[in-house]
Design a protein that fits this description.
Blueprint (H helix, E strand, L loop, with lengths): L2 H11 L4 E2 L8 E5 L7 H20 L7 H9 L3 E4 L8 H8 L23 E4 L11 H18 L59 H10 L2 H5 L10 H15 L14 H20 L7 H4 L1 E7 L22 E7 L6 H4 L1 E3 L10 H10 L14 H6 L13 E8 L10 E6 L8 E8 L8 H7 E7 L11 E6 L1 H11 L3 E10 L16 E3 L11
Parallel strand pairs: 2-7
Antiparallel strand pairs: 1-2, 3-4, 5-6, 8-13, 9-12, 9-14, 10-11, 10-13
Helix pairs in contact: 2-5, 5-9
Keywords: Signal
InterPro entries: Tyrosinase/Hemocyanin, Tyrosinase_Cu-bd
Protein name: Tyrosinase family protein
Length: 538
């Protein structure tokens, strides 16, 4: 492209909101930036918008543009609403709801004071339900963030009570970089800020440590197709790699508090900046692969949530089978079809820096792969497995040296390479409790030596995390399948016929400490069968 034209385009991208084109329904495009890159004025406007949403919930917990309802969109399949849709909450009571991860915020009768003059005739409404462990995980959260950003802008657009919120763009937190604060971005660690949440884990990180590996994230973006990256059609593999190997670990093990449970996660303002970086990762994946590989309900499913009808809907939205909205209680019955959100510019937002500037480049990941042989695994002296190398030594999401339990089985290395895919399968039994866990899986000769870092580096096949999902019917059997054909083929030339071992080192967090048991898991196996498809309902 002409360098002068490139310069002009770059200037437009960095200039802030602008018109996306000459269509009839055109949105000004706001560029989402890192929370650490906001100007002081932009940060104050964002903080004011969050504070305004909380004030709206104080005036009326049922205000769909308020902070509680926007949190319920993620956290609560149903809440009991009184007939007048009006119930105030004091600032102190709101803070108690936000600061107690053990309180069921979906049960309004557990914290509302229905005194004289407050209607106590209830009916159920359905704020939403987060999508997890399926191929609509990223699209649903993208739609949720779209509406949350609209609510932020609508909170005080004329600046009557503080800085104007008209042009607020939801910031993201790049958690693959060393945090600017003790453990999180500085803006989220100020106890006097509306962005603060006292329930989070607040332990200081070692000075050089990032929170999650940028190499693993970039590998997923560049080298995984949609079912592997974003989730398969039936949700039978516990979700796509971005969800299971990055998202789940951050929720359950790194952040904790409200974020440790899907029924309270939306209460923490950090939730939105955290998921916004996952949305940026989705955008980078779409830049690399396009959306043609996203099929079935990954395109057509309606994103469940009841939103305020005054908030701008995504371009192309239609009520569809939802029919006519009740005139006396106008709301948006869903957030639209998944594929409406594939084009963010059309819907009024993009990311800064554009073109994936927060991510490690493809050629750097390719060099790392080449160093570990394209097959994906090498067992030479002092040689890390590819997966261990992707995690790197300076990230907090590496394998655990002292797991809660280990479960193991034997595996005979084949006598010949093959083209048929083989899967490593780890299955939690149907009657097991649904606690969060991280599973580091090793393929190795001899007995496991999990406490030995050299062992972990050399024989780690994969690491994945499950986020225990309370109250959403996600308990019971859970199957995790990881394609390992390249790994097995790389062992055949020198180890064919040898008897090796599969060891799954499983670690839970505080909430699961009293529940985890070896009996909860089937023995890990490698076979041509992954996880059987389990149809699900949206």
């Amino acid at each position: 492209m002409n360098p002068i034209l490139l310069t002009l385009l770059a200037g437009l991208l960095l200039a802030g909101p602008f018109s996306a084109g000459a269509q009839d329904d055109v949105r000004p495009v706001h560029y989402r930036k890192s929370i650490d890159d906001l100007t002081p004025a932009e940060l104050e406007a964002f903080k004011h918008a969050v504070a305004e949403l909380k004030s709206k919930s104080q005036l009326n917990v049922y205000d769909r543009s308020g902070y509680l309802w926007q949190s319920w969109v993620h956290d609560c399949p149903a809440v009991q609403v009184n007939q007048t849709r009006a119930a105030p909450l004091s600032a102190q009571d709101l803070q108690q709801v936000l600061a107690n991860p053990n309180r069921n915020s979906c049960d309004v009768r557990g914290f509302l004071d229905f005194g004289p003059g407050i209607d106590t005739r209830f009916h159920p409404e359905h704020p939403g339900e987060c999508e997890h462990q399926k191929n609509t995980f990223l699209q649903w959260h993208r739609a949720q963030l779209y509406y949350f950003e609209q609510a932020l802008r609508a909170s005080d657009p004329d600046g009557q009570r503080g800085p104007s919120t008209r042009d607020v763009a939801l910031p993201y937190w790049n958690f693959t970089r060393k945090p600017s604060g003790v453990r999180y971005p500085q803006a989220f660690e100020d106890p006097d800020s509306p962005l603060f949440d006292a329930t989070r884990i607040r332990a200081r990180l070692p000075s050089a440590m990032a929170t999650a590996s940028p190499y693993l994230l970039a590998y997923q973006i560049y080298y995984m197709d949609w079912p592997e990256f974003g989730g398969d059609e039936y949700g039978s593999n516990g979700g796509g790699a971005l969800e299971t190997r990055i998202h789940n670990h951050m929720h359950a093990f790194y952040i904790g508090g409200n974020m440790a449970d899907n029924a309270t996660a939306g209460m923490d303002p950090l939730f939105y900046a955290f998921h916004n970086f996952l949305d940026y990762s989705l955008e980078k994946w779409l830049d690399e692969h396009g959306d043609a590989g996203i099929t079935g309900d990954g395109r057509s499913a309606q994103m469940r949530a009841q939103q305020d009808n005054k908030l701008p809907k995504p371009i192309g939205w239609s009520a569809g089978s939802a029919g006519t909205l009740p005139a006396a209680d106008s709301y948006t019955p869903h957030m639209g079809q998944a594929d409406l959100y594939f084009d963010t510019i059309k819907q009024g937002y993009g990311y800064q820096p554009p073109y994936g500037g927060e991510f490690i480049r493809r050629n750097a990941i390719q060099r790392l792969i080449d160093a570990h042989q394209g097959a994906g695994f090498v067992f030479g002296d002092n040689q890390k497995s590819l997966f261990a190398a992707l995690l790197s030594d300076d990230a907090a999401d590496g394998p655990v040296g002292q797991p809660s339990i280990t479960v193991g089985s034997k595996y005979a290395i084949p006598t010949a390479t093959g083209t048929t895919k083989r899967y490593l399968r780890l299955q939690r039994k149907a009657d097991a409790p649904d606690y969060s866990f991280q599973a580091d899986v090793y393929l190795h000769p001899g007995q496991p030596r999990i406490a030995d870092k050299t062992f972990r580096d050399r024989y780690l096949v994969s690491s994945t995390s499950h986020w225990g999902l309370s109250g959403h019917g996600h308990g019971g059997a859970l199957c995790i399948a990881i394609e390992v054909n390249g790994i097995i083929n790389s062992l055949v030339p020198t180890h064919h016929g040898a008897a090796w071992h599969l060891t799954a080192a499983v670690t839970t967090n505080e909430r699961g400490a009293g529940q985890i048991s070896k009996a909860d898991f089937e023995l890990p196996v490698i076979s041509a069968n992954g996880c059987a498809p389990v149809p699900h309902q949206h």
